[in-house]
Structure formats: C-alpha cells, structure tokens
Amino acid sequence: MSSNETIIKFNTVSFAWDALKPILDEANFSVRKGSKITLMGQNGAGKSTIFELIMGASKPDSGTINILSNMTIATARQVIPRPDLDLTIQEFFEKSFSKKVYDIDVKIKNVFEIVNLHIQNDRVLKSLSGGQQARVLLASALIQDPDVLLLDEPTNNLDKAGIQHLTKFIQEYPKTCIVISHDADFLNSFTEGVLYLDIFSKKVEQYTGDYFTVVREIKNRLERERMKNARLEKDISHRKEQANFFAQKGGHLRDVSSKMKKQIEKLEGDIVEVRREDKTIRDFNIICQDDSGGDIITLDSVTISKNHKFLDKKVNVRLTKKERLLLQGPNGIGKTTLLEKLASGHAKGEHIKPGTKIAYYRQDFSNLDFNATVYQTLSKAMGDRGTEQSLRAHAAGFLIDNELLKAKIGSLSEGQKGLVAFAAISLGRPGLLILDEPTNHINFRHIPVIARAINEFEGAMILVSHSPDFVEQVKVDQILDLGKFLEK
C-alpha cells in the first residue's frame, strides 16, 4: 500500500518538443511512495514523454519536477531502441548500469526467473521474439531494483502466461510503479489511482480509485460536459435570434441587442470543447485486390523453436478469399518469424498465388521508412488512385492531421505509427493481410473499428494476437496452434 510521502511532484510543468508539438502546459500532479498508478491518454498525447521527464532524460521548459533525494528510477520501454538490436543480452544489460557489474551473469539469471524467461545471455536481441524482447525490457528495469518502476506498455507481445506472471509481480512489488498500458483488465488488477493526460488542455488530471472506476468517472464527466454544451448551444441560438431581431428595430432595442451579443460571447466561452482524446478513428475499409478466386495461400509445413532447436512440422492450411487464420502459440515458438517469411515468400512449405499483393502489419513497424514523412508513406500506398485532397481526408479519419502528415515516421509515438500502418494498409488493396499483434499500442477506443474493417475485408488474412478482447471481435475460420507441437 502507498504511504502519504510524496516522492514525485510536477509543479506547473510545461514542455514541448517544438512550437508545433506541445505536451504539457503548467501540469500539476504528485505520486506517493509505494503507489500503483496508471498513466492514461490518447495515442501521441505524451505519456512516454512524462516518463522521460521523470527519468531526467528531458527537462521541462518551465516549472519544476521535484523527486525525493536518493530515489532510484528505472523504466521498461515499449520497444528496444533500434541501435541496440544488434547487442547481445549481456551487453544490453550492462548498459543498464553506470558502473561495471562483476556478477552481471548472476543478476541476469535472477531477474530472468522473475520474468519467466529462459534464454542464453549471448543471444542477439534482434533474434528474439516480440514476447521475449518484452520480457528482456522488463528485466532490464527490474535488474536495477529501482524505488520507482516505470512500465511503458509492458503487456505488448506477452502471451497469457506472461501477462499473468507480470500482473502477480506488480501486485506484490513493494515499491512505486507507474504503468502505461491499453490492457484494461491488466490495469484494473493493481491500479490505485490514475493520471489522465488531456491531449487538448495539456494538463494532467489526478484520480483515486481502480482503473474501471476512474474510466467511468471520466466518461460520466464528459457526458455532463456534452449535456451542458447542448443546453448552452440551444440558449445561444435562441438569444442570437432575439439579438438579430432587436438589432433590426433600431433605437433603444439596438442597445439591447448589443448587450445581448456580449452575453452570447460569454456563453460561448463557457462551452467546453469536445476533447480530442475522446475521438475514435472513423470506420474504414480495406479494399481487396481484384482476384479470380482459388487458394490465395497454402502452407504445408512450419518451423518452430523448441528447446533452442528448430523443428519442421507438417500442417495443412488452405486460405481462399474471406478466410481467416489465427496463429497461436507461446512466446518464442516462432510466430513472428513465420509471418516474416510468409510476407517475404520465403517460408518452407508456403505457396502464395502468383500476383497476390501482401499487406504486412509488423509489430515493430520496421517495414515503415522511419525517415519518410507520414504524407510520403500514405502517398506511396495510395499510388495514382486518389488526389491529395482524398489522401488528407483519409488520413483525418485516422486522427492524422496536417501537422502529423509533415512529421517523420520515426518521430511518432508507437500508437501513432500503428494508425499510420493501418491507414497505409487500407490504401494498398491487398489480397492477403498478415497482422502481427495489430492492437499493440492502439487506444482501446479504436479496436472495434479495426475489428470491423478486418471482418469486412474480402481477401485472406493471417493474424497473431495475444489480446483476447480483440480476437473475440474478429471472425476466425481456422486456428493453427503451434503450441501443440511442443506436447509431442
């Protein structure tokens, strides 16, 4: 349980990456020792930036951040930094410490027991599965035994067992923990309070209670604001009609009209603008490539990883138009590797119908050009099938405004990259859709819209997802569980 001692306090903190990208505007909040806190906000609002400010990696433009002296802080990022992917596990962990640690092997072994990971320290990070990388990121923070643990989307890529393991750890963790996640059930299992970053006002609102209680409280408050707006707008409309009527009469009534217009301006100032973080992406379609039918993809064998050995196993998968395959299995068995090879046409036992266009949603977005702008990315996906106006309208449906269109992919938050990836996929007219953890980083409000688009897609689809809520919303025709091969 938390104590009354405040260990982190933001005092009127303002921060912006540049003039076009403000994150905080005189934000105030505090964190008590031993508390378990959720940090909420829309994709791109700046949640990860708050972590950077707490860590001291970024400095506020104004205001102060007070952290109790001698407090140690560690963070588990969403993804392994791209330059670090060529490091071995041991080299990556050595970077977690400012001084050389002579018993690093023992420390890694102990922390791997906590996160339930059993791999050799000489493995190169880029050779690990998404789930294994997620565990390494968590372990790299835990190995420092910090007073404050910052977790940024820690359940991404974790299988069910991994999420259960992490949940138990956080519940029993005796120190302070702040978590960013879009997994509602996971958050509700330990949350004692919520910090809500409003992307519109750039303020941080602080709530006490479990996650579901706070979400309901925020929803009810927003509904009250909308009702207030409706009443004000009705009153303003009526007063404007009266003011215009009096203005036409002249004389004393013209003065009355002038006073009424001032009252109208005051009422208009009382209208609460609908918060942008409450917007959901618009319904969209993934139009299928023109095709005559038949098998789009056949798969006669798969390669799995078992006890650090690769084994070929026979399967019988046939997908035609409108057929969907769910690929299951524990972290590290080879799901992402299989999808990568299927997307490139280099998987054993694979045959894809000639001419089939493949759209591949990679969980690490490495098939996006991080140096290209969002506009260039979407323009390339659209080709000559639309105008600039239609491209901008399409982007707006994914909450991508004109400023974001100018931004480079590498500068976006992970959630924004996910929306750009879907915006590009829906422009590409694929015949085969390959989706690897497509809801990682995505705001929960967008999930039903994405599920509907997938369900209405006329082509074939292969999906990997550890999100039960999302899988329940997607129509699945076949399931290939690679985990069954571990039992033999």
Automatic annotation (TrEMBL):
Pinpoint the ABC transporter domain residues.
8-224
Listed GO MF terms: ATP binding; ATP hydrolysis activity
Per the record, the domain of life is: Bacteria
Indicate the segments annotated as coiled coil, or none if absent.
215-277
Q: Which Gene3D superfamilies match?
A: P-loop containing nucleotide triphosphate hydrolases
Which UniProt keywords are listed? ATP-binding, Coiled coil, Nucleotide-binding, Repeat
Q: Would you tell me the protein name for this molecule? A: ABC transporter domain-containing protein
> What organism, scientifically named, is this protein from?
Candidatus Staskawiczbacteria bacterium RIFCSPLOWO2_01_FULL_38_12b
